[in-house]
Amino acid sequence: MTHYLVTGHTGFKGAWLVQLLAAAGHQVSGLALDPVPNALFTRARVADLLTHDLRVDIRNAAMTATAMAQIAPDVVIHLAAQPLVRESYRDPRTTWETNVLGTYNVLDAVAQEGGVQALLVITTDKVYRNLNRVAGYREDEPLGGVDPYSASKAAADLLTQSWIASADCPTPTAIARAGNVIGGGDVCAERLMVDLVAAFGADQDVHLRYPQAVRPWQHVLDCLAGYLTLVDALLAGEHAGEAYNFGPGAEAFVEVGEVADRVAQLWGTTAAVVVDPAPELPEAGLLALDAGKAERELGWQGRLDFAETLSWTVAWAKADAEGGDPRELCASQIEAFNAMRPPR
Ligand SMILES: NC(=O)c1ccc[n+]([C@@H]2O[C@H](COP(=O)([O-])OP(=O)(O)OC[C@H]3O[C@@H](n4cnc5c(N)ncnc54)[C@H](O)[C@@H]3O)[C@@H](O)[C@H]2O)c1
């Protein structure tokens, strides 16, 4: 049994990842801040699945190292971050400290612990210098980032590359870059699907800022399966030092307005989709990932197409609104997802 440490396990991806790993029979521990109100982590009773459930601020190097030594994991998946663009404008210092210094502290804690066999650092599609082009970005293209979130994640990515290249790196390490993910139970403010579910659940109109903005739409389980495929490669002694994109195919690059209309249809609501004037804070334009390297070298492929990604997300949210148990809803979608290929 492999012991995984998930940093950021109280967040959206983290709560799904812990459940996915536990369903595969792994031992799992977590290190993060307290969950936000109404978090999937709490609602799906994810703490029950953990060996260690530590609440540690990764900006604190000593506490991060102590926690790493206490957990002594085989694998570390570093998700913990301040992940929101608009919040990064409101509080750039916390964003930089968490995303860069926090990542350094996690890497340093792994080095001090000494027994970690694989380390995966999660960044984002927003690490690429945005040229507003349609073709997907490949892993060897220049990094950049204008808003504090994107720039700090690009910095964390470069920091990890530097750490990998340094003689002090004893642990097979890789970087995973994925884009926008959706799925049941997200409560992060400022994410479209969260706003849609909240509005349609209450039969209220939904307000959009950029209806024509094109975004990639990937189910959280497809993204996490990509991360775990890469971890498996590291554990098999392959692909250390590499970065991989995990993104959906071109059919899943869809306008925000169309997604809102399709979710309204799936939900069966009569609420309207209303367009508000664009806010002042600039948001990055289209950022498409080219996931060809992960497909060729790791054999990874997304399992859910765009229609399934939306319908699984809406089905989860509707069942939840009708009183379904969030843990059972996650478990049944994980089972269905694993049945689409041999379970991990
Ligand atoms: N959700 C997406 O669409 C998306 C897209 C691209 C990349 N990502 C990346 O995936 C990762 C997880 O994102 P998410 O959507 O689950 O975010 P989330 O906000 O739901 O979860 C963030 C997690 O990080 C933890 N955290 C934040 N600051 C911390 C600190 N100082 N010390 C310890 N823990 C801290 C939180 O407690 C929480 O567990 C992030 O690295 C994010 O940049 C997410």
Secondary structure layout plus pairing:
Layout: E1 3-7, H1 12-23, E2 27-32, H2 40-43, E3 53-55, H3 61-71, E4 75-78, H4 85-90, H5 92-113, E5 118-122, H6 148-165, E6 173-178, E7 181-182, H7 192-201, E8 206-208, E9 214-216, E10 218-219, H8 220-235, E11 243-246, E12 253-255, H9 256-267, E13 273-275, H10 292-298, H11 306-321, H12 326-339
Parallel strand pairs: 1-2, 1-4, 2-3, 4-5, 5-6, 6-11, 7-10, 8-13
Antiparallel strand pairs: 9-12
Helix pairs in contact: 1-12, 3-5, 5-6, 7-9, 9-11, 11-12
Bound molecules: nicotinamide-adenine-dinucleotide.
Radius of gyration: 19 Å
What is the CATH superfamily classification? NAD(P)-binding Rossmann-like Domain
Strand order of the largest sheet: 3-2-1-4-5-6-11
How many domains? The number is: 1
Describe the largest sheet: 7 strands, parallel
Q: How many helices does DSSP assign?
A: 12
Percentage of residues assigned to helices = 40-55%
Element string (H = helix, E = strand):
EHEHEHEHHEHEEHEEEHEEHEHHH
Overall average residue pLDDT: 93
